[in-house]
Amino acid sequence: MKYLHLIWAALFRRKTRTFLTLVSIVAAFLLFGLLNSVRMAFSAGDSVDGAGRLIVNSRMSMQQALPESLGARIAAVPGVSAVASANWFGGVYQDPRNQVISFAVSPDYVDLYPELVLPADQRAMWDRTRTGAIVGAALAKKYGWKIGDKIPLQSTIFPSKSSGGNTWTFDIVGIFHARNEQAAGREQMLMFHWKYFDENNAFGSGTVHWYVVKVANPAHADEVAKAIDAISANSDHETKAQTEQAFQASFIKQLVNIGLIVVSIMGAVFFTLLLLTGNTMMQAVRERTSELAVLKTIGFSNRSVQAMVLCESVLLLLLGGLVGLALVSVIVPGIGAASGGMIPVHGVSASTWFLGISLMLAIGVIVGWLPAWRAMRLNIVDALSGR
Amino acid sequence: MKKFLINLSLVLLVVVALFGWTMLPWLGALALAVIFAAWLGFSRSGRQTASMTAVGVSTLRQRAGSSSVIVIGIAGVVAVLVALLAMGEGLTATLQSGGRTDTAIVLRGGSAAESASVLVHDDVLAIGQAPGIARDAGGKPLVSAELVVAASVKQQGSDEDANAQLRGVDAEAWALRPGLKIVQGRKFTPGLRELDVGQGAARQFAGMAVGDEVKLGTESWKVVGVFASGDAYDSELWADREAVASAYRRGNSAESVLVKLTGPAAFDSFNAALASDPKLKVEASTTADYFAKQSASLAKTIHIVGLTVGIIMAIGAIFGALNCMFAAVASRAREIATLRAIGFRGAPVVVSVMLETMLLALLGGVLGALIVWLVFNGYTASTLNGLTQVVFRFKVSPQLLWDGLKWALAIGFIGGLFPAVRAARLPVTTALREL
Questions:
Q1: DSSP B205
Q2: Which of A133, A261, B228, B325 is deepest in the core (most CB within 10 A)?
Q3: pLDDT tens for residues B87-100?
Q4: A36, A60, A99, A289: best mutation site toward chain B, by most B Cβ within 10 Å?
C-alpha cells in the first residue's frame, strides 16, 4: 500500500496514453455489463421463491386447454400443498401493439406468488369484485391506470359474451408490487378472475391452460411432477409437469442462445483488450527502463519492482472496468424502462459485479505479467547504460 | 485558445466526414479512391505523401504489436457487427419471403397473428364465395382454410422439448404456395394422419425423417414427405386440417383462410366484399403485408442491438487505434521533423499518417468480414416466432460486408486524424532536439 502513490505516478506518467487506454477498457466493460445483465435477465427464474412451484400444462401443446376438474385431482396428489390455475387471455390495450400480459386466474393464484405484494384491503376488494382486476405497478404506471378505473381490453383470442365483440371490461381494484428484483418482470402483469372469464367467454367454458402447483418440499418436486403426470396418462389431456425454472428455461433456449452470443462477443472484445492493454504496458515499461533501474539502484528489490508493475496493470484495468460497470448501472434501468418490460433488466446484479471484477483482476495480471517479469529481470548496469 | 479552436474544428470535420461517409454509396467511394490515387501519383505533394507512407508502412514490422492491436480490434468490431446484422437479415428474409401480393390471408378481426384468430365453418364458406378469388382448372376456388398448433416435439439430438408449428391445411394449400416443393417422399393423403415436414423442421426436430412415426398430441403420425420453400414454412409440419383439428379437438373451426387472388389488383374488391358482409368479422391482408408486419418488430430489435454493440465496440477500437498511432507518431517524431526540415509540407505528413492507419483499418475490416463470411454465411440458427420455432439462415450479403468495411475505414479515419495532426504540428526544432 505504501507504494500506491508511486504506482499511481507511473500510471499517469503519460496522461494521453493512459486516458486512451482507459476509455477502451471502459468501453469493453460497459459492453460486458450490458450483455451480462441481459443474459442474466433472460436466464432469471432461478429465484428462491420459484423453487417450490411446478407448472402443469398440456403435453400436446402449450395452447391446449386442460379440464378445470383436473385441479381437484392434482390437489389430492401427496406432496402438493396448493394448486391454482391460469388461462391465456392475450389482452391488448387500445392498439394491437400495446400487448398486456394478462391472465385469468383462480382466486388463490396470488397466494402461490409470495414475491408479489398486494395490500390486504385491495385483496379483499378483488375477491368481492366479479370484474375486478389487479395490475402490476409497472404496468399501471405505463398506462396511467389507478385503482377505481374501468378499463377495456381487447382479447386477441377470446370473444366476450357481454360485449358481443372482443372487448372485455375490467375494474382495477388493486395494484401489486414485486418484493424483489427477480420478480420485477411480473409487475407487467394483469390478472383477473377465472370465474368472470369462464362465464363471459363465448368459446365455451370449463377449461384452464395451466396449473401452478406448490409442492410441500421442493426437494421432492420431481416425484410430485411424475405423480401429477400419471393422473392423466393415456387420457386425451395428458399433462406435462415441470418446475417453473425448467418451464422458463425451455422458452429462453428456444428463443435464442443468448449465452452463446454473449460469450462470443465478449471473447472477441476481451481478446482485443488483452492485446491493447498488453501493448500499453509493454510500452510503459520499455520507456521507463532507466527509471526502473534507478529504483533498483536505490534499493528496491527485484520482487517489489515486479509487484509494482503488476499492480500498475491491475490498477489500470480496475479503474477502467469499474467506471464501465458504474456506467452500466446508470444506463441499464433506462433500457429496462425503454423496452417497456420486454428486456427485464433493472440494475447490475451482484454476480455481474463479481464476474466483472474477477475479469479485471485476471486480465490485469495476464497483461502485466510479461512487462513485470522484464522489469524484474532488468540488469541495472545494462539498463542505465541504455543497452 | 488557438489549440482549442483547431481541435474543435477537427471534431466538426470528423462529424461532417462521418455523416457524408455513411451516406456514400460504393460507387462514390470508388470515385473517391480513384481521385485520391490520382493525387498520389501525379501531384508533387501526392508523391511526397506516397513516399512518406511507404516509409511508414516499411516500419510497421517493428511495431507489430501495436499495429496488430489496430487490425484485430477493428476486425472484431466488423465481425461482431456484420454477424449480428446478418442474423437479423437472415431472419427477416425467412419470415418475409413467403409473402406474395396475389395471395391474401384472412383472419378474425383484431387478430395480430394466426394463432390468435378463430374462424368458424360458416366464415370459411363465406370467404370462399368472395369475388376476386382465382380458380383452378376444374373451377374450384383456390382457398385453403388452415389451423396452426404449437405441437410439442423433441429437439434433434437432445431430449429437450421444443414447440413446432403444426399446420393443418386443405388440399389447395400446395397450389397457393408455388415456391414450396416436395423434395422427398410425397404429399400427405387427406383424411389420414400423415405429415409432410419442412426441411428446416426435419433438421431441427427429432423423428422427422420420411417413414418415421412421430407422436403429436395423443396420436401417432407418419412422416411421408419433406418439402422445401426457403421461408418460414420450412420450419413447419404440415398435415390434413381435419386430422389436426380432430387430434387437437378444434372441431371444424379454422384459424386463417388463405386465398389465391386473380391478381394483385383483385385484393381491393376482395377486401371490400369481406368488409361489407355484416355476418363476417374478419380482416384480410396480402401475405406480403402480413409477413412483413409479423417480422417488423423482431427485425428492428435485432438491428438496434447489433448497432448498439457495434457502436460501443467501435468506440473502444477508435481509442485503441488513437493510442497506437500516437505512439507511432511519437516514436517517429525525429524522422518526421527531419522530413519537414528538408522541405516536406504539413499536408503530406497528415495524409501519410492517416493513410497508414486506414490501411491497417482496411486490413482489419477485410479480415473481420472474411471471418464472418466464412463462418456465418448460411449458418443455420433457430429462434421463437410467437410460440413456435422458426429455423433461419444467417445472410451475409455483399451490402453488409460493404457496411462493415465502411465502419472499419471510419474507425481508421478517426483513429488516424488526431495523431496525424499532432505529427504535422510538432515544431521542427523541438522534435529534432528530442532524443
A1: B
A2: B325
A3: 888 888 888 877 88
A4: A60
